[in-house]
Design goal:
Pfam families: Mem_trans. Belongs to the auxin efflux carrier (TC 2.A.69) family. InterPro entries: Mem_transp_PIN-like, Na+/solute_symporter_sf. Keywords: Cell membrane, Membrane, Transmembrane, Transmembrane helix, Transport. The structure is a single chain. With 302 residues, the protein is mainly alpha-helical. It has a single domain (2-301), classed as Na+/H+ antiporter like fold. 75% of the residues lie in helices and 0% in strands. The chain contains 13 helices and no strands. The relative contact order is 0.20.
Length: 302
Amino acid sequence: MIATILMGLVPSFLMVGLGGMVRARLAPAAWQGLDKLNFEVLFPALLFFAASNRPIAVQDVIRIGPAVWAVMGLALMLGYPARRFGPERFLDFAGAWQTAWRFNTAMAFVAVPTLHLADVGQMAVAIGMAVPVANLLAVSALSRGGNLTLWATVRKIALNPFLLASVAGVAVGLSGYKIPDPILAPAQMLAQAAIPIALLSIGATMDWRALTRLDLFNGYLCAVRLLLTPALIWVLCRLLEVEPGLAAVVILFAALPTASAAHVLASGFGADRRLVATLIAQSTLLSAVTLPLWIYLIGISF
């Protein structure tokens, strides 16, 4: 089973490695442009297509939403003790703290097909429910020392492309309406490009030497994101006898590496961007080991 999981994930990690190899072929501004394209167009198309391409039961939204909110709340609480040995300035700590609960959407859609219990549509619902709360928590933490007004903060959250696409896709799924294939086809084509471009960009912009700077503070936050939170969620799912499909999605969501764009928000508020970028690289690199193990554990537990 573990070999099957690795075979499912290896192509994606090889794409990340390829991105690292070809980073010099494009200027940094070009990679930033690809990130912008993914954020504004490609991943929203993926989220919309995944959520709208199948009927969604109201109970799925009612079950999945609170579950992923609980995951992020737990990660937030587990991450806060790092304040004692983190940066002196709270703003810099907040920039790093957000990596404990934010999640990498690309890796979510990479990992889902390796689990027969998990469903792509349910993961799209999970991400749709999680995006606004993840941003709200991050912006709230950073706003203590940030320069955004309340209205600008609300606007930033409300107009998030992931949120808009997810809400639209979930609305279509809940309605039961089947969008005609010729009209939905462009969204599908864009969706197919999202993950490869995201993986290449992650590899091209990641600091591959980041693991050499894994100190107590960074190591603890990575452990919260990759080990402690999914472990507690796994225990809760077992104790509460959660339905296997839902348990698989929620535990997998809890085990994802942190969001690759977390440093953008930190930079916007004036936090230490380099610290956050290092944490992102460390979380992504370490997830190459932890994520297959969690997928294996989910597969034998439910």
